[in-house]
Write a structure and sequence with these properties.
alpha+beta, 30% strand
Length: 228
């Protein structure tokens, strides 16, 4: 009886020790939401880094190196407000990467783009190193290219800027392109709430607490931080 009692006590101790860990795991935030507002507009943004979660939300595999941001924007006045994906940037505080969102065609259309830091940027690398993966073809081939060419976001040689180049041999990914176009934040003008996805390229691994979405549009300037 004493042996059984000792075993029971040991099992109870283990259960108590495991319970907080299991509780923490069940409350782990995969896609946190941040919000900010001013006199003209209120914005809420939900960010997703995990590739499996991005695939689940899009209904198609976008590959690695894609940050998905769901934006909900609500004008606060009776004056029509122009809303565009180009009003937004993603910023990585830890290494200075900053970029505007890609269009669906840039990610999954024919001759799609890849991203890498341009030469001469802080912590940057030369064009001989491949850019980040930004999706895959229907056959499963990862799409990535050298990091020089036309600029995206604050590229063109600025610190943290991103360089892109077109791959003329890339045949695109039609299922992914359809999904991206269907869920993208629209370019529109009005007074009603509007929502949709933004597709940001981001090289390397990052913690959510080091990322921010910046709004720089007709409604003013707002910074949405993800401190989780």
């Amino acid at each position: 009886m004493r042996v059984r009692t000792g075993v029971l006590r040991s099992l109870m101790t283990i259960s108590v020790a495991i319970a907080p860990v299991a509780l923490w795991a069940s409350h782990k935030v995969v896609s946190p939401t941040s919000s900010a507002s001013n006199d003209k507009v209120e914005i809420a943004a939900t960010i997703t880094l995990d590739q499996a979660e991005v695939t689940k939300k899009l209904g198609a595999d976008a590959g690695q190196g894609v940050v998905l941001v769901e934006v909900r924007l609500s004008p606060k006045t009776d004056q029509p407000l122009r809303i565009s994906p180009d009003d937004f940037y993603i910023l990585s505080h830890d290494d200075g990467q900053r970029s505007q969102p890609f269009t669906p065609d840039q990610f999954a259309g024919k001759g799609g783009l890849s991203v890498a830091r341009g030469p001469g940027t802080a912590g940057g690398f030369g064009v001989s190193r491949p850019g980040i993966p930004i999706g895959s073809t229907p056959g499963g081939t990862m799409r990535r290219l050298p990091g020089n060419g036309a600029g995206v976001g604050n590229s063109g040689g600025e610190e943290g800027g991103m360089k892109t180049e077109t791959n003329d041999k890339d045949q695109g990914n039609s299922p992914l392109l359809t999904a991206l176009k269907a869920k993208q934040l629209p370019d529109a003008t009005g007074t009603d709430e509007i929502s949709g996805y933004l597709y940001f390229p981001l090289e390397g691994k990052h913690k959510l607490k080091n990322l921010a979405v910046l709004y720089r549009g007709p409604g003013g300037r707002l910074d949405l931080e993800f401190e989780h």
